[in-house]
């Protein structure tokens, strides 16, 4: 496995654990004694933490280290079901505090109610058909 592949596996596993925990990145970073910037490089797949920090993360989440380092067996060879844009949005959402997350959900809901954002493909098909 290449270093890039290992970073991607770790990134996805870390983001899953962050989502599951309901904690913010800054809270986790402070709990394990790293800067938010360092923690963010792990979340973005830019860097992989040293084993000591992986152990602290596993302890924080109450999981074995392998849950952060290994590809899940059922999806190890399957491509991600999320697009790069969707993963980017999810990552940015996870960086928000609770108030920011609430506001983001409101705004997305508002956008989904505006026809010009949701019916574009239908209109395009009518025009070309």
Largest sheet: none
Shape: globular
Whole-angstrom Rg: 18 Å
Low-confidence stretches: 74-78
Would you list the SSEs in sequence order as H and E?
Answer: HHHHHHHHH
CATH architecture annotation name of the domain at 3-77: Orthogonal Bundle
Assembly type: single chain
- How much beta, percentage-wise? under 5%
| Structure classification | mainly alpha
Mean pLDDT: 84
Query: What is the CATH topology descriptor of the domain at 3-77?
Result: 434 Repressor (Amino-terminal Domain)
Q: At the fourth CATH level, what is the homologous superfamily of the domain at 3-77?
A: lambda repressor-like DNA-binding domains
Question: DSSP helix count?
Answer: 9
Helix content: over 70%
Distance between the termini: 47 Å
Broad CATH class of the domain at 3-77: Mainly Alpha
Query: How many strands appear in the DSSP assignment?
Result: 0
Q: What does this protein structure show overall?
A:
This protein is an all-alpha fold and 129 residues long. It has a domain of 75 residues: lambda repressor-like DNA-binding domains (434 Repressor (Amino-terminal Domain)), CATH 1.10.260.40. Helices cover 71% and strands 0% of the residues. It is built from nine helices and no strands. Helix 2 packs across helix 3. The longest helix is centred in the N-terminal third of the chain and has 19 residues.
């Amino acid at each position: 496995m290449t270093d890039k592949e290992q970073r991607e596996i770790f990134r996805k596993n870390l983001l899953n654990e962050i989502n599951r925990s309901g904690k913010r990145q800054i809270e986790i970073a402070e709990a394990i004694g790293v800067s938010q910037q360092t923690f963010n490089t792990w979340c973005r797949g830019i860097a992989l933490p040293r084993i000591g920090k992986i152990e602290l993360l596993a302890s924080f989440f109450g999981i074995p280290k392998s849950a952060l380092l290994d590809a899940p067996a059922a999806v190890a060879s399957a491509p991600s079901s999320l697009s790069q844009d969707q993963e980017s949005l999810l990552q940015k959402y996870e960086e928000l505090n609770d108030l920011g997350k609430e506001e983001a959900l409101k705004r997305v809901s508002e956008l989904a109610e505006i026809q010009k954002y949701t019916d574009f493909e239908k209109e395009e098909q009518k025009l070309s058909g």
